[in-house]
Write a structure and sequence with these properties.
By secondary structure, the chain is an all-alpha fold. Helix content is 84%, strand content 0%. It is built from nine helices and no strands. It starts with a helix and ends with a helix.
Length: 268
């Protein structure tokens, strides 16, 4: 496996940096087009909900069943999924409502108090998305890297699939930050940072976790990540999409996000 080390790391880096591509795409949605913002937030939620239930949770069940048997594996999959939801709710509870004030300046005198509050809420959604997707990308980085180390062809397939998935995830991070701060640099930076958890996962996997990585480890991580992504979609993205648009625009975004993710999974 050692001769594939460099290629495996480059594949993981490629998959992670694709979130930055999504960050760039978010800039093409005009700042004053709130219906497009609603559509984009709904799209991001659709992507995350679909990939969580049809891909990540199913992959987790496969790993857990192979490690613990059919009955135990399925029950663990369910328990860990809801544990992930609980963990995301705990993070949400612990994150202060005004945390965006510590990172961004909303003291613009031209804004009313209501507008400042709206921007803070939107920015907080983007920051929360960055944290959640970093947690999601870390085990993905481990999976891509270890697959590339074992079988380079398999590693390439996984890296391409993850890269395509990461583009709309980058949009999910950059879109609310860009619309709340009007800063392309900050929006792109946070979307890219969330993706850099993947090469970080590769480094940690190689230097620290090689001896303990197993199907059970991947199953636990993926089931929890699926729960986290579902929570952020229903608790953060969809309410925000409804606030900036209407039910029809929000649902259209969700359906389009699911459709894009479904087609990408079939093609790959």
């Amino acid at each position: 496996m050692e001769h594939n080390l460099l290629y495996a790391f480059l594949l993981t880096f490629f998959a992670g940096i694709s979130t930055g591509i999504g960050g760039i795409l978010a800039f093409f949605i005009k700042k004053d087009n709130i219906l497009a913002l609603s559509l984009g937030l709904g799209f991001s939620a659709g992507v995350m909900i679909y990939v969580s239930f049809t891909e990540i949770l199913q992959e987790s069940k496969h790993y857990l069943i192979s490690s613990f048997g059919s009955n135990t594996g399925e029950w663990l999959n369910i328990i860990l999924f809801f544990a992930g939801i609980g963990f995301a709710a705990l993070i949400d509870r612990l994150l202060p409502d005004d945390m965006s004030h510590h990172i961004f300046d909303f003291s613009d005198s031209d804004l009313s108090c209501e507008e400042k509050l709206s921007k803070c809420k939107l920015c907080r959604t983007g920051l929360f998305m960055a944290v959640v997707l970093a947690l999601h990308n870390f085990p993905e980085g481990l999976a891509t890297f270890m697959s590339g180390m074992t079988n380079l062809t398999l590693g390439i397939s996984i890296a391409v699939a993850i890269a395509i998935h990461n583009i709309p995830e980058g949009i999910a991070v950059a879109l609310p930050i860009y619309h709340s701060t009007k800063s392309k640099r900050k929006a792109f930076g946070f979307s890219l940072l969330s993706g850099m958890a993947e090469p970080l996962g590769a480094v940690v996997g190689y230097f620290c976790l090689r001896s303990i990585l197993s199907d059970a480890t991947f199953g636990v991580l993926l089931a929890a990540v699926a729960g986290i992504m579902v929570y952020i979609s229903f608790d953060e993205l969809l309410p925000m999409a409804r606030e900036y648009g209407n039910g029809h625009v929000e649902i259209l975004g969700v359906v389009l996000g699911m459709l894009v993710m479904a087609i990408s999974l079939v093609l790959l």
